[in-house]
Specification:
heterodimer, A: 124 residues, mainly alpha, 5 helices, B: 804 residues, alpha+beta, 7-stranded antiparallel beta sheet, 33% helix, globular, transmembrane (chain A), membrane (chain A), transmembrane helix (chain A), metal-binding (chain B)
Chain lengths: 124, 804
């Protein structure tokens, strides 16, 4: 449940802030967010990745659908991918990795700050 | 342990973030490009979806209204000229920023900054020709002689810059994103440079080639193969025109010593074959409505974003509409409520080369008469992406820059040649267009043209008051017969140009009795014009077709003129093919494939329509025959030019067994028939291959007209295989890579009726639906409505924006 919520909130964060901020600022925000929320390792990695990946995929899909432009196809040809579908996948994949590594970094940073072993906080 | 884990992941994350922000070789930084909020995805959105009611443009005296019609053509309504051009700069940048900057980078020899060492040679050529040097002279000239225009140039530049400063990443043109650089500020210098660049695109010279030909053939044979006035030429100014002026005297030196080397130098790039234009105007006496009609279609390299950008520019004093050049002020080919004008290239040799004899290795002085004259050095610093800057030292003489020297394009260390070209002298072409835009009469047109130096143009004119006119305008050097046709000795002061033809003695005509004026890059005048006129590239076919059609047409309508602009009649084929078929005889009667082609050719009506097969067959057969005829000449190591198609056909017709056809290094004596047969054999081979690989050889499929993006590597931004007819030497001059880059027809009645089209679209953005939307119509010979609009007109409005 927390995983889905984290994914959703990361996506929301990208949707709200990415229009004004560069991707690396968004990465920083995701890392901070992950540090605050505290999903663990793999959970943070996949939730952060899926969040940003889905947000990027969604925005790309939205723009190409609404605009009806053939630019994605042209860019796909230009970049040697051959099709806009591959380019969509590459965009989503890139978003995934940027989000995933950012969230994992944030999550591991949180672990650094914990002064005592985890189990002390069990039930907290 | 957890520290190590954190550090490893942190390092990985930072490395990932950095690597997707960096360029690797030709791969652009991925994240900024793919980021759907800032990267290329955003360029998918068309202009109408991004429309804003208000935009901020500072330093206006009052608000400016911009109304876009359904073709995204902006109509700018401003109260003052300064506001008008500030808004023109802003709006042009909004739709064509990348292109206007890229073109001036090319003109300045700065492409290496964008693409790396790949473009270094190109940049060196551009700089050694002195284009930027000429533009610097132009800036000073305008500042000193015409400060008002300079203020307007600065207003335009400011408009462009305000747009650049407001530009968000998302709307940054996609080419910047792919090539990974950003726009820099515009300046008046860049606008002037752009006009110099046009000169470079349109003006060539063949002095090198003619020098070699003179050496190879001798004067007598040179005049026979390359006559300056071949029989049957129809000049621009109607033959028999009376010249009502006393010409200036030009003295020819009694002895001329041409530099006598046969030169193996790589020649500079020349204007490409197919670069040319048509324009004409018919007087009311020949039209159905009684109003004059004017037409213009400049033929240039077919590119995207299109070279032209359509606009209406309105102040309380005038309203002008037509084709603008992104980067230059005003309308270049267009009309207003009172007059219309258009341009074709007036090719004439205005570029000459002088052999320079340096005193010593230091190149600080060169011989001139009895003295040694000082040179100056201009160091060109060419920035190269990813590498150290390249420093190129160019020596300047009083003639101009020494383009060919030991460091450039020369296989011989001792050869130095300086280029004299009027593009290096201060001039103010911009003023011509500012004045034409506001012009009301034939007098205004003449006054505007007096400011014009280069590239020389045939300016056609028509006015509501019923005048039609043609004037060949440029700053033409006074030359004695033959001067500048070959390389000259720069040490001999007698080789200097002796001044310039005064503007009022440039060839012109007003309301000739034949009822029309026309030009299509042919000879400007008949041989009675009192000055020496020479060029290698005069055209022989389009002009005769235009003139014969205009002579026979009566009750002409706008539709008739549109049809004439799209006329596909292949005059060269009509003249050459019957001779070739005759010479071919019955040799191939037993070959089925040959018989099929001969039948097709015999049945062909000489129209180069896209579905016809005749033009493809003729085109191949002619080219093979032509190269066979001049095989011996083209086998020379030294660069030369071949005799024109027109002259070659004349030889085939008049002296098919003459010595011009004999190849000296074979035992037999060749005649025209031998070459025609050889050409036919080679065509059979080529056609066999084509039919096997491609099948259909109808004309459009064979010539494959392509409209290429300005970066040729961006293939998917180009439009390939446009289905359209025409070809080089045909009124509809659409060949593979060249053609009508703008077609305009204007009828000057009480209400001006205007039509225009160009092969592209108003948007420079390859993702926009307005990027290439005119091409299908253009290919079909259709036009867009170009009537003048008023500010409050509501029909056909896409959106409108207030600038304030």
């Amino acid at each position: 449940m927390k995983f889905i919520l984290f994914t959703f909130l990361t996506a929301l964060l990208v949707i709200v802030f990415n229009p004004f901020l560069h991707y690396w600022s968004v990465m920083l925000l995701i890392a901070i967010f992950a540090a605050l929320v505290g999903n663990k390792g793999a959970g943070a990695f996949f939730a952060g990745g899926l969040g940003m990946g889905i947000a990027w995929l969604g925005q790309s899909l939205y723009i190409s659908t609404v605009s009806g432009s053939n630019l994605p196809q042209k860019m796909g040809d230009l970049m040697g991918f051959g099709s806009d579908i591959v380019l969509l996948a590459v965009t989503a994949g890139l978003g995934f990795f940027l989000g995933a590594f950012s969230a994992l970094t944030g999550s591991l940073f949180r672990r650094l700050l914990k002064k005592k072993p985890n189990n002390i906080y069990k039930g907290y | 342990m957890k520290y190590i884990g954190f550090l490893v992941v942190l390092t990985l994350t930072v490395a990932l973030a950095l690597s997707v922000s960096r360029q690797f070789g030709t791969i652009p930084p991925l994240a900024p490009l793919l980021d759907p909020y800032h990267g290329f995805w955003q360029n998918s959105i068309s202009e109408d979806e991004l429309a804003e009611d208000k935009l901020e443009l500072n330093k206006l005296s009052s608000e400016v209204k911009v109304v876009y019609d359904e073709n995204l053509i902006p109509h700018i309504f401003a109260n003052t000229q300064a506001d008008l051009y500030r808004a023109q700069g802003y709006i042009t940048a909004k739709h064509r920023l990348w292109q206007m900057e890229f073109q001036t980078m090319a003109a300045a020899g700065r492409i290496s900054e964008i693409v790396g060492p790949l473009a270094l040679d190109l940049d060196r050529i551009t700089r050694r020709k002195g284009l930027a040097y000429g533009a610097e002279k132009g800036v000073t000239f305008i500042q000193e002689n015409d400060p008002e225009s300079f203020l307007l140039l600065e207003a335009y530049a400011d408009g462009v810059n305000q747009y650049i400063d407001q530009l968000k990443d998302a709307q940054l043109p996609v080419e910047y994103k792919i090539l990974n650089y950003r726009p820099e500020h515009w300046t008046a210098f860049k606008s002037i440079l752009l006009l110099k660049y046009m000169t470079d695109m349109l003006v060539g010279d063949r002095d090198l080639e003619y020098s070699n030909l003179r050496k190879i053939l001798g004067d007598v044979m040179l005049d026979k193969l390359y006559p300056e006035y071949p029989t049957g030429v129809e000049p621009i100014i109607e033959a028999g025109h009376k010249w009502n002026f006393n010409p200036l005297a030009v003295t020819r030196p009694d002895s001329i010593n041409y530099p006598d080397d046969q030169l193996v130098i790589d020649p500079l790039p020349q204007p490409e074959e197919g670069t040319g234009s048509n324009n004409w105007a018919v007087s009311g006496s020949k039209t159905k409505s009684g109003n004059p009609i004017l037409a213009n279609d400049p033929h240039l390299s077919l590119n995207l974003p299109s070279l032209w950008y359509s606009m209406q520019l309105t102040t309380p004093e005038y309203s002008v509409k037509g084709a603008t050049l992104p980067g230059a002020l005003g309308v270049i080919s267009g009309f207003n409520e009172n007059i219309a004008w258009g341009v074709t290239n007036a090719t004439r040799d205005t570029r000459d080369w002088y052999k320079i004899t340096f005193q010593d290795e230091s190149r600080q002085a060169y011989r001139y008469g009895e003295k040694w004259q000082q040179t100056s050095f201009r160091i060109e610093e060419i920035k190269v992406k990813g590498e150290e800057a390249y420093l190129d030292t160019v020596v300047y003489t009083h003639y101009g820059p020494v383009v060919y020297d030991k460091t450039f394009n020369s296989n011989r260390q001792d050869v130095n040649f300086a280029l004299k070209w009027n593009v290096h002298e201060g001039s103010n072409e911009q003023k011509t267009f500012l004045m034409l835009n506001a012009g009301k009469s034939h007098d205004d047109y003449n006054a505007a043209l007096d400011n014009y130096t280069a590239p020389a143009q045939n300016f056609v004119f028509a006015s509501k008051s019923g005048d039609i006119a043609m004037r060949i305008q440029g700053k033409f050097p006074l030359k004695w017969k033959g001067q500048g046709k070959f390389f000259m000795d720069g040490a001999d002061p007698r080789m200097e140009w002796q001044g310039y033809i005064p503007n009022e003695q440039n060839a012109s005509t007003l309301n000739p009795s034949r009822g029309f004026v026309s030009s299509a890059n042919q000879h400007p005048t008949d041989s009675t014009y009192p000055y020496y006129v020479f060029d290698n590239s005069f055209e022989f076919y389009r002009n005769r077709r235009i003139n014969s059609r205009l002579s026979e047409m009566k009750d002409i309508t706008v539709e008739d003129i549109q049809a004439l602009q799209f006329d596909d009649y292949y005059l060269h084929a009509a003249e050459a093919l019957p001779i070739m078929l005759e010479l071919l005889g019955s040799e191939f009667e037993n070959d089925d494939q040959a018989k099929k082609y001969i039948t097709l050719l015999k049945e062909w009506d000489f129209y180069a329509d896209p579905n016809q097969k005749g033009p493809s067959l003729f085109y191949i057969w002619w080219r093979k025959t032509y190269s066979q005829v001049w095989k011996e000449l083209s086998d020379n190591v030294a660069p030369i030019v071949l005799p024109s198609y027109y002259q070659t056909v004349l030889f085939m017709k008049n002296e098919p067994s003459g010595p011009v056809f004999d190849l000296k290094n074979t035992a037999e004596t060749e005649t025209a028939a031998a070459h025609v047969k050889q050409g036919f054999l080679e065509m059979l081979t080529d056609m066999k291959k084509w039919e096997l690989e491609e099948g259909d050889f109808s004309w459009a499929n064979y010539k494959k007209t392509t409209i290429k993006h300005l970066v040729p590597q961006f293939k998917s931004f180009s439009v390939e295989n446009v289905y359209t007819g025409g070809g080089s030497g045909i009124i509809n001059a659409t060949s593979e890579r060249h053609g009508a880059s703008w077609r305009m027809v204007v009828e000057l009645g009480a209400d001006v009726k205007a039509f225009g089209i160009y092969p592209g679209g108003q948007s420079g953005n390859p993702g926009s639906k307005y990027y290439s939307n005119f091409i299908a119509k253009w290919a079909n010979g259709e036009y867009l409505d170009f009537n003048l609009r008023t500010a409050d007109q509501t029909e056909g409005v896409l959106f409108q924006t207030i600038l304030n």
